[in-house]
Each structure stands twice: as C-alpha cells, then as structure tokens.
Amino acid sequence: MKALIIDIDGTLTDESRRLDLAAADAIRKLDIPVILASGNVLCFVKCATKLIGTSDIMIAENGGVISSGFDGPVRIKGDHTRCAGVLEMLRGHFELEELDAADRLSDVALRRNFDIEAARHIIADNGITNVELVDTGFAVHIKSMDVNKGTALLEVAALIGLDAGDIVAIGDSANDIEMLQAAGLGVAVGNANPALKDIADMVTSGRYGTGVVEALKYADKSSLWED
Description:
globular; four-stranded antiparallel sheet; alpha/beta
C-alpha cells in the first residue's frame, strides 16, 4: 500500500477527544502520504495535521471539503445551501444547536441532543432524497447524499497519482463506511460503529489509537505497504 487515509475523532483520539500519542508516533514513522479525513471543519483538520505531522492534503466535512495543501486550493464538494434548507425545515420540529456554523462550507453540524431517527423520517416524508443525516457519535451532520469520505478518497487518490486500491483507510464511525469501502484495505478500530465493522476488511482488537497502532503493525508485518 502506498498511502493511508485516517479519521481523527474516535480513531486517533479517544471518547474524550484526547490524541493517542503512540498512534501519532506510529504515523510519523511512515514514509508514505498520510491524509487526515474528518467530519470536522477544515481549520480543525489543518491544526491536527500540523500537530500529528501528516501530509498537507486534507479531507474535511465528511468529504465535502478537500484541501490540496495549506496554501493550495480548497475544493468544495457538498451543497451547503441545500443542507441549510433542511436545517431550517427541521428547526420547525426540534430545538437544534448548530456547531461551527461560521466555518462550515459544505454541510451542517448539529449537537446530538435531538431525536435523530425522527428527523430522518421528517426528511423522508418531505420527499428529500439528496440530503442525509449522519451521526458520527460526536455530532450529527446534514450532508449531501452524493458526497462522503469515499468520494473524497477517490479524488485524493487521483490527486496524488494512486489507485484507490493502493490506499489503506482506518476509521470508527458511520461516516467512514464509504471511505473503507473505497480503499484497498479498510480497517475499523475496536470501538467502531457495528455498521463499520460489518464492512471492514479488518477489525482491530484494540480501541481508538491502540487499534491504529495494531493496524499499522499488521500492515507492516504482512507487507501490505509494498508495491
């Protein structure tokens, strides 16, 4: 394998969002591109990229934002206007708290303090088929249906001149499903959402960053990083 794309919250961090330093150290030792892929906003991912020492290509907002470098162009794939319209519709049914509203470019993030399934039914009952709700365990995202971390992985692969099959992806949440499916090897850490474990090629016994270290050791021993 020739590159690694990895989620941040719940994968490189624990449930309290504390970075696993052993996982960060293992990533720093890799001599391949390592790309962070998060549901969070781009400024957060840029900060994490600097702290962890990963590549300057970044995926934010569940694949809706792709940055080709700290000073390079930012590609916006999601439809923020469409998502904001769904937000206003849902405000008629729930008291919602929007997160990082000033920094979001492609989707809408909400605090997880409302009935998510009921909201999904309302969206469906209104005939909206191009927007979905994704619960990451840290926030609920209103996002474009046709944009996800998997579509972003394919775009990043082309950007760095690789096939998707050359890439290992590691994650923990439902918003990582398409990313693991698109990769050559999809790894779910031990604390992952059951739906992610169901589609993963490998599920680690270790949770959070411990699972990341386990996955990287497995990949090294099994020569998965070779051409």
